[in-house]
Amino acid sequence: MNANLYESLRRFAEESPDRLALIHRGRALAYGDFRARVERRAAELRRCGVGKGDRVVIFVPMGIALYEILLAVFAIGAVAVFLDAWADPKRLDYAAQLAEAKAYIAIPKAYLLLLKSKSLRRIPVRLFPWFGRRDASADFVPADCVPEDPALITFTTGSTGVPKAALRTCGFLWAQHEALTESLDVREGDVDLATLPIFALNNIACGVTTLIPAFNPARPAEIDPARVAAEARSAGVTTTAGSPAFYRRLAQAACGGEPDPDAPRAPRGWRGGLSGACGGAFIGVSRDARGRRVRVHGSRADRGNPGGGARCSNRPLAGDTRGNSEPAP
């Protein structure tokens, strides 16, 4: 079996080419078109001399282009060196120095950083996010990967010192996908509002439609809640996962005031999954198959249930029998 993560995209593009894959700022991309765009980008990377095992620094904000680029890098067996779009110049220079990258893909503004970074200037292949407009060959063949092949390098925030690199193999990413799918309970047919890049990548591997909201992931508490709620209603969102700050801001606006963490509720008019924010480090919210209840996945603890589990849930976390199973009102 080819462990290349691109294979999941190819499978869903063949099975359901018209199913929506990504929605962002009014633009929608179906799986069939998504695959074609990824393959054009992958072919362009190969023409530039980037191949299996080469490292590619990606400095692109969360959006459709980011996932086209990530999947293109995976498709040719290269290693994506992923940096959050809010990384500071020192962190970017450090990442480039450590990665010894073959290619740099970044928004135009990020090219100004080359003036300050010798490490970035040493990268031979430099591309803007809109590269890959030439048609790919009809017989595009992805790289054959094994679970031990490197696929992704990410970095810690560096809040406790120098940022630390984490190398993830193809096998690790597949295992992560399986764990997230089980924990978040996303299924084919869902429309997920993704607040972090990893969630959208997981959705692609599940064949799920992803709505990428118009917000800055670095400042989840500063979202425009009316805009995000409107986007979610329009897309028919059924599930979402992210930080408490994001949902607290959204629930505050929808409920007309500060939500009570001890009595979370779905705001009026909301057709997808949303609840008041619990105090845990991670929250995911969804409705059941009939849209009757709200489920909260992944909260480590909240004020009313310090032992853990998912207090605002119709079921506890997988393997956790301590959660309160009260239905959301």
Topology of helices and strands:
Layout: H1 6-15, E1 20-24, E2 27-30, H2 31-47, E3 55-59, H3 64-75, E4 79-82, H4 89-99, E5 103-106, H5 118-121, E6 125-127, E7 150-155, E8 165-169, H6 170-184, E9 191-194, H7 197-206, E10 209-212, H8 225-235, E11 239-242, H9 244-255, E12 283-287, E13 294-297
Parallel strand pairs: 1-10, 3-4, 3-5, 4-7, 5-6, 9-10, 9-11
Antiparallel strand pairs: 1-2, 7-8, 11-12, 12-13
Helix pairs in contact: 1-2, 2-3, 6-7, 8-9
What does this structure look like?
The chain has 329 residues and is of the alpha/beta class. The chain has helices spanning 6-15, 31-47, 64-75, 89-99, 118-121, 170-184, 197-206, 225-235, 244-255; strands at 20-24, 27-30, 55-59, 79-82, 103-106, 125-127, 150-155, 165-169, 191-194, 209-212, 239-242, 283-287, 294-297. A hairpin with a 6-residue loop joins strand 12 (283-287) and strand 13. Helix 1 crosses helix 2 (31-47). The longest helix has 17 residues, at 31-47.
Spatial order of the strands forming the largest sheet:
2-1-10-9-11-12-13
Order of helices and strands: HEEHEHEHEHEEEHEHEHEHEE
CATH class of the largest domain: Alpha Beta
Summarize model confidence as the mean pLDDT. Answer: 76
Give helix % range: 25-40%
Tell me the fraction of residues in β-strands, as a range.
15-25%
CATH domain topology of the largest domain: Rossmann fold
- The total number of structural domains is 2
Structural class: alpha/beta
**How far do the termini sit from each other?**
46 Å
Low-confidence stretches: 259-329
CATH-level-2 architecture of the largest domain: 3-Layer(aba) Sandwich
The shape is globular
